[in-house]
Design a protein that fits this description.
Blueprint: E1 3-5, E2 19-23, E3 29-33, H1 42-52, H2 66-74, H3 77-86, E4 95-98, E5 101-104, H4 108-111
Parallel strand pairs: 1-2
Antiparallel strand pairs: 2-3, 3-4, 4-5
C-alpha cells in the first residue's frame, strides 16, 4: 500500500483510492479503508456499524448527494442499511479500523490509544 504522512483530513480528502495505510503524524501506521471503486463488503460494513454505534453515526449529513441522503433518511428503517451499503458515497470518511475497533472521520486521539 501507499503511505500518507501527516494526513490532515480537511486538507487531503482522498478522491480516489482503494485500500491504503494511513501513517499519522505521530508515526504509527493505521489501517484505513477508503472506498471509491470497491467499497466496504457487507461484513466490513456490519463490523464498522457495530463499532461506531450504529448506522446514524456513519452517515455524512453534509454529503453532496442530497437526494440520496433524503431517500436514506425517509425510507423504512429495515431498508436503510441495505441502501447505504449499496450507496456508500453517503458515508463519513475516513473509516479507520484496528481489528474490531473502528472510527469514522479523522480521530487521531483515538488512534493513538490503539495497540
Amino acid at each position: 500500500g501507499q503511505q500518507v504522512r501527516g494526513l490532515s483530513w480537511k486538507e487531503k480528502r482522498p478522491r480516489s483510492s482503494t485500500l491504503m495505510r494511513c501513517s499519522c503524524s505521530y508515526g504509527r501506521g493505521i489501517p484505513q479503508i477508503i472506498m471509491k471503486e470497491k467499497g466496504l463488503s457487507r461484513g466490513e460494513f456490519e463490523s464498522v456499524k457495530k463499532a461506531v454505534g450504529g448506522l446514524d453515526n456513519m452517515i455524512d449529513q453534509g454529503c453532496k448527494d442530497k437526494d440520496l441522503l433524503a431517500l436514506i433518511t425517509w425510507i423504512a428503517e429495515e431498508d436503510r442499511a441495505q441502501k447505504v451499503l449499496e450507496n456508500q458515497s453517503v458515508l463519513k470518511l475516513p473509516i479507520v479500523r484496528n481489528g474490531r475497533q473502528a472510527t469514522i472521520g479523522c480521530q487521531p486521539e483515538i488512534w493513538k490509544t490503539w495497540s
